[in-house]
Amino acid sequence: MLADYEDQAHLVEAIDTVTRSLGGLTRRRRFDRMATVCDPASGRLTASFSAVAKYYAVAVDICPPRRGNRKGVVEKANHSAAQRWWRTLPDDVDVPAAQAGLDALCVRLDERCRMRDGQRTTVGALAAGEGLRACPAAPSPAELEVTATVTAQGLVPFRGNSYSVPPGMRGARITVRHRLGAGVLRLATVSGAVVAVHQRGYLRSTLIRRSCSCGSSRPRGIVGRSACSRISASAALTAAIRPPSRSRSHATRF
Fold this sequence. Notes:
Elements: H1 8-22, E1 28-31, H2 47-56, E2 59-62, H3 72-84, H4 95-109, E3 113-116, E4 119-122, H5 123-128, E5 143-149, E6 155-158, E7 161-164, E8 173-179, E9 184-188, E10 194-199, E11 207-208, E12 219-220, H6 227-241
Parallel strand pairs: 1-2, 7-11
Antiparallel strand pairs: 3-4, 5-8, 6-7, 8-9, 9-10, 11-12
C-alpha cells in the first residue's frame, strides 16, 4: 500500500487496510528491522508498536540481521512490483490512481500457478483457504499527520478532497490531523493551533467548506458556493466591521 509518509501512523493505516482487504488477521506477523516497529540495532519492539500489536492480538517476529535468505521471497516480490509496475507509472499520476494500479497488479499476481499435493492451484486460491481471525471493528486509533499548503482559494488538499480554512491564510503551512476510525479532520497551524474542524469526505474531488453557526460541516460539490458558506462569510464580514457586544447573549459564534 502506498502512503504519504513513512511514520508509524501511516504504517498502522497500511496494515489495517491490507488486513481488511485480505479478510482477516493471522496469528503472527514478520517485520523488517524498521524504526517504526523496533529498534534497528537491538530488534526490541517500541512501546507504541507493542500497543498496536496488542490491539490486533498478533505476535510480532522481527527479521534477524544479516539473514538475506529469510527475506528472499519478500524482496523478490518487491523487485517484481518495481519492474512491472513502478517504472511504468507516468510522472503526473496521483496517489489514489497509483494505488489503484498497484491493486490491479496484486490481482494479476494472485493468478500465479502453484502445485500443492500434485494439484495445480493459484496463489489467490491458497490465500482464500487460509484460516484467518476476524478484524477489530475499528482500526487502531493512530493519528495521521500530513502537512499541506493553503491554496489561493483558502483550501487545504487532503487525499483528493479540499477543506477550507479561515480567511487570510493563503500560502500558510497547515497540518492535517486524522485519527484512524474517526470521521473528523483537524486542521492546525505549525504552532499547533486548530483553525478548522471538518467531517472527512470519502468521495474524491469534494469541496468541504467551513461550518456555519449551527455547527454542521457537509461535503459540497466543487462548482459554486452554498448558501451556508455565503451566510458564514457574511457573518464573518459583519463581525470584522462591527465588534461583537460584550453581552454573552448577543455574542457572535463561528
